[in-house]
Design brief:
With 652 residues, the protein is of the alpha+beta class. It folds into three domains: 3-105 and 257-334, no CATH class; 149-222, Alpha-Beta Plaits (2-Layer Sandwich), CATH 3.30.70.2750; 341-628, no CATH class. The protein is built from 22 helices and 16 strands. It has helices at 18-28, 53-73, 82-88, 95-104, 107-138, 169-179, 206-215, 229-257, 261-281, 302-313, 339-342, 345-351, 362-377, 380-396, 401-424, 447-475, 479-500, 508-528, 536-548, 550-559, 562-582, 587-625, and strands at residues 2-3, 6-14, 32-33, 48-49, 91-94, 157-165, 183-191, 194-202, 219-220, 285-286, 290-298, 317-323, 332-333, 335-336, 635-636, 647-650. Strands 2, 3, 4, 10, 11 and 12 form a six-stranded antiparallel sheet that branches. A four-stranded antiparallel sheet has the order 7-8-6-9. A two-stranded antiparallel sheet has the order 1-14. A hairpin with a 3-residue loop joins strand 10 (285-286) and strand 11 (290-298). Helix 4 (95-104) packs across helix 9. The protein is extended. It comes from Clostridium cadaveris. It is a multi-pass membrane protein. One of its GO terms (biological process) is vacuolar acidification. This is V-type ATP synthase subunit I.
């Protein structure tokens, strides 16, 4: 239960069997390929990189078409009930079943039909937008009862159609009337600070009219229509109405076409897998007849891996297999734990994947995470609720691996939450307190007891973290380093704890022993922590600086007081809601409003308190615990396998 041992392989086989072999290895789901293009060593110098760009581009193009079709149809599909969807889960196929279904599919015809309808919808949208723009442009001229075509120039007159700022209209009309005889000006409307005018002038006064129009900021209309404005507007309205009818017709067809979503999802999953395969093959090298493949597999699956190869190529292959070296930083890391610990792997992975040379911290972190979360939520009612809800989700719903792990995570957390809640006597706050239900510890009066327990648990976890560091150093046969870097801190911190025992009545002999042990530990820290420096002064300075880290340990221990603080806060909030219910005097109102306050208030509290417990428990693991021994920075194992977006693809 830890980091999976990995083996590196280099495989040579006939190029003609590459495609079938790649499909088999994808079905095997435990192979991560190495890019040989970057590692063309002397013995591979006569091999050339595979050029799969054309095939990859083709697959990606088809995948984009299917995605477009799905994106176009999903808004028109009947919304599936969320609970029903969880209960039924994703449809399951083997790789072969998926390929057969996809090859029989007519997704290309479906795509072309949807693309045509989508193009038509876009065309309608653009046309409607254009017509609306024309209608808005004509609207100020709606009261004009003559055709725009009748306002054109003749042998003796010339017309102007346009706008003048509202503030200039009176001055314009006065000047125009006095200086341009044989003219006609009509104000059709005023809209948004602009006056819409029709101006008719004898041709002999065209020049003078233009000068006046320019002076008063006349803006000539760009309307090209020739009919009566009201009639044109009505005609535009009819056109828009007909376009909307066509749009509704197309949307109904898309709604009918949404019955093809399942078929398109099969095609998407298949093409997605093909894209993965073609992309993976770009890591290979080839000669005219032979292909070279390299990668990583779990050591425990070597025999099954060889069998998978032989099912495709028989004995026509040559393979080199070697177990990964302990300190190799290129080795991808896979974690393998039991069901309980696996549910907490995501906590480790959020921080960082361990290096291949490190230990997996998840197994030793899990008990602490359970305990800390339980102490922070600390309510038996909430814990039972969390456990039952998670258990129902696992039993009644067909969850994929990720969702099932998430449900198990909270189911396991419900257990310590219930246990600590019983110890505190907390059941949805203090709702059972009036009935004589008490815990072993009363959070309202035994605050110092809980505080001391929180710090003691923190000290224990810090010591476990240091022990984990010693374990890794001993595993690397660095025995002296284990004593210098861990043993010295055990002596210093352990001695300090014994010395502090004088405050609680420890015998003087034990206190004195603790003092000398602490001093010895501190001397070892000062003398050894600067060992990598060359000069004696630098060694001592580095040692003294390391000793200053003792203050950091004090801060780390105090950080565990949040175990008490969050547990008390959640309990007091729950009790406050119960107090509000108790203050309702009217029995009927108490039943109605009390029920609402109880359900709503405690639901709010359990969500808020759970979030706080999750965040602060993670914080204690990442800062106070992992900081003592764990670096991370490893590369997660990413084997070639299905993405399972719409369908769960199983091994054949």
């Amino acid at each position: 239960m830890a980091i999976v041992k990995m083996s590196k392989f280099t495989l040579f086989t006939f190029e003609s069997q590459k495609e079938e072999l790649l499909s088999k290895l994808q079905n095997f789901e435990k192979v991560q390929f190495i890019d040989l293009r970057e590692k063309r060593e002397d013995d591979l110098s006569f091999f050339n990189p595979l050029d799969e760009k054309k095939d990859l581009s083709e697959v990606q193009g088809d995948l984009a078409k299917v995605k477009f079709a799905l994106d176009s149809l999903h808004p028109y599909a009947e919304k599936e009930n969320a609970l029903k969807s969880l209960k039924e889960g994703k449809e399951e196929f083997t790789y072969n079943e998926l390929r057969e279904r996809a090859e029989k599919s007519n997704w290309k015809d479906i795509y072309l039909s949807i693309k045509s309808m989508d193009d038509s919808l876009n065309s309608i949208k653009n046309e409607v937008s254009k017509l609306k723009g024309q209608g808005e442009e004509l609207l100020p001229w709606e009261n004009l009862d003559v055709s725009f075509g009748d306002l054109g120039a003749t042998a003796n007159i010339i017309s102007f159609v346009g706008t003048i700022p509202k503030a200039f209209i009176d001055g314009f009309m006065e000047k125009f009337d006095s200086e341009i005889p044989c003219s006609y000006v009509e104000k059709v409307s005023e809209v948004k600070g602009e006056g819409y005018l029709i101006i008719i002038v004898h041709k002999d006064y065209e020049k003078e009219a233009n000068e006046i129009l320019k002076t008063f900021s006349f803006n000539k209309s760009s309307i090209s229509e020739k009919g009566v404005p009201r009639e044109i507007i009505n005609d535009i309205g009819e056109k828009i109405k007909n376009l909307y009818l066509k749009e509704d017709e197309l949307k109904n067809k898309l709604k009918e076409a949404s019955s093809n979503i399942e078929e398109l999802e099969v095609a998407y999953e298949y093409l997605s897998n093909e894209e993965l395969k073609v992309s993976a093959s770009e890591n290979f090298l080839e000669s005219p007849n032979v292909v070279a493949i390299s990668g990583w597999i779990p050591t425990e699956d070597r025999d099954e891996f060889i069998k998978s190869i032989e099912k495709v190529v028989g004995n026509n292959y040559y393979i080199e297999l070697e177990e990964a070296e302990y300190g190799d930083t290129e080795v991808p890391v896979a974690l393998k734990n039991n069901k309980v610990v696996s549910a907490f792997q995501s906590i480790t992975e959020m921080y960082s994947t361990p290096k291949y040379s490190e230990m997996d911290p998840t197994p030793i972190m899990t008990p602490f995470y359970l305990l800390f979360f339980g102490m922070m939520l600390a309510d038996a009612g909430y814990g039972i609720l969390m456990f039952i809800a998670s258990l129902i989700a696992l039993k009644k719903f067909n969850l994929d691996e990720k969702k099932a792990n998430f449900a198990r995570f909270f189911m396991y957390l419900g257990i310590p939450t219930t246990v600590v809640g019983i110890i505190y006597g907390s059941y949805f706050g203090d709702i059972l307190k009036p009935y004589g239900v008490k815990g072993l510890v009363d959070p309202a009066t035994d605050i110092m007891t809980i505080f001391a327990a929180s710090l003691a648990i923190g000290v224990f976890q810090i010591f476990v973290g240091l022990g984990a560091k010693a374990y890794m150093l001993i595993k690397q046969k660095q025995y002296l380093y284990a004593f210098f870097d861990v043993g010295s801190w055990y002596m210093t911190l352990g001695g300090a704890l014994l010395l502090a025992g004088s405050l609680v009545g420890f015998p003087s002999g034990i206190v004195s022993f603790g003092k000398w042990i602490m001093i010895a530990g501190m001397i070892i820290i000062v003398l050894t922590q600067g060992r990598d420096n060359k000069s004696i002064g630098a060694k001592l300075a580095a040692g003294l600086y390391a000793l200053y880290g003792l203050s950091g340990y004090v801060g780390d221990i105090i950080s565990y007081s949040r175990l008490m603080a969050l547990g008390l806060a959640g309990g007091f909030i729950g009790s406050a809601f119960n107090l509000m219910i108790g203050m309702i005097g009217n029995p009927i109102a108490k039943i109605i409003f009390g029920s609402l306050i109880f359900v709503g208030g405690h639901l709010f509290n359990v969500l808020l308190s759970s979030l706080g417990a999750y965040v602060h428990t993670c914080r204690l693991q990442y800062v106070e615990f992992f900081g003592k021994f764990y670096e991370g920075g490893g590369k997660p194992f990413s084997p070639l396998k299905s993405r399972n977006k719409f369908i769960t693809v199983k091994r054949d």
